[in-house]
Amino acid sequence: MDFLLKLLRMPATLAALIGDHLIGPVLLRAAGVQHGNGLVLVGSPVIRMKPGGTIRLGRQVALYSRPTSNPLLLNTPCGLRLLETGARITIGDHCALSGTVICSAKSVEIGNHVLIGANSRISDSDFHPLSAEARRMDRNKGVASKPVVIKDDVFIGSGAFILKGTILETGCVVGAGAVVSGTFPPNSIIAGNPARVIKTLDVQETPL
Ligand SMILES: CC(C)(COP(=O)(O)OP(=O)(O)OC[C@H]1O[C@@H](n2cnc3c(N)ncnc32)[C@H](O)[C@@H]1OP(=O)(O)O)[C@@H](O)C(=O)NCCC(=O)NCCS
After folding, report:
1. CA angle at residue 88 from 145 to 62, to 5 degrees?
2. What domains sit in the chain, N to C, each tagged with a CATH number?
3. Does the beta carbon of 98 lie inside 6 Å of ligand 1?
4. How many angstroms separate the CA atoms of 63 and 57, rounded?
5. Splitting the chain (208 residues) into consecutive groups of 10 residues, what average pLDDT does each group show?
6. 194 C-alpha vs ligand 1 centroid, how far in Å?
7. 159 CA distance to ligand 1 middle (Å)
8. How far apart are CA 169 and CA 7, in angstroms?
9. Active site residue 21
10. What is the side-by-side order of every strand in the sheet holding 161-162?
11. According to the model, what pLDDT value does residue 55 have?
């Protein structure tokens, strides 16, 4: 029975393998994404470039976009989206994103060995102005944005939202569902809405 199921699934599995290993990386490069060796794609990420913008992925970066590619199941594919001309998204080496959407109007910079849990969101922009009058005039103009910096060895839990201007120093851990804004010292464990430091990791526990 197991064998029969595998046999029936074979065409779909083969199509997924070809898509992930051959077509996906070509489409990513065609969209203007720069990436290092060892890129892992599972399912198709959504990419939006802007003139003069850059999206750069380091070595051994994994983007999990298929719903079943994470035990928690993914609500959306990964998305890397530039919102303004000249915006940047930079992701370092050995990072993994699961159904994560990153939007950058200026800059979102992610270090090395960063893990981003299922269905998290990161944005350096508010997307719309805060004043009702300005929104009526033009809902996409005069939007506040501030760069986001996520340093090495940060681990972001599932469903977190990292807001504009956030700086997560090396080794921070962000709890599931946290709404994060502000600057957080190295090795902080951060949780809640608004996210606060609930603990500081013993430096011994920090991966080297
Ligand atoms: C934040 C986290 C790392 C803390 O783990 P921990 O250090 O073992 O902390 P504890 O479970 O001892 O909880 C400490 C306190 O924080 C609270 N807390 C823990 N996680 C929380 C969260 N995500 N949001 C709000 N509060 C949280 C606990 O209720 C507890 O509160 P109390 O001291 O008032 O009782 C963990 O709870 C978490 O959210 N992990 C992320 C898992 C995840 O999403 N993985 C990615 C899957 S793709």
Report:
1. 115
2. 2-200 (2.160.10.10)
3. yes
4. 10
5. 84 86 92 97 97 98 97 98 98 98 98 98 97 96 96 98 98 98 98 98 70
6. 14
7. 13
8. 48
9. no
10. 46-48, 79-82, 101-104, 121-123, 161-162, 179-180
11. 98
